[in-house]
Structure formats: structure tokens, C-alpha cells
Amino acid sequence: MILFTRSARSFPDSYVAAQCHQHRSLILKTLGKEQEFTQEAQRAREYFFKMEDK
Hints:
The chain is mostly helical. The protein has one domain (2-47). Helices cover 72% and strands 0% of the residues. It contains three helices and no strands. The longest helix has 16 residues, at 15-30. The chain is globular.
């Protein structure tokens, strides 16, 4: 999980950070850390939205 945290901080505005936040949220959920999971999942959804190609 440390690598996901470090990558998200190193590349804060990139798709790499979005993927790291998603992976971190899954790890936190697995560890039973519901509050941290909720925060990470929200961060991934709100700050890194997906754009559709047209």
C-alpha cells in the first residue's frame, strides 16, 4: 500500500494517481478500515472522473 500512496503523491493529477486511489480503497476495505475506505473511494470518484470519447 505504501507504493500506491507514494505514486499518488508523486503524480497527483495523473491517471496513475486515480488508479492508486482505487487500489488503496480496495486494500483498505479488505483490511476492514471502513472510514478510510470510504474516504479513498470518494477521492477516486470525485477528483478523477472518467471522460468519454466522442
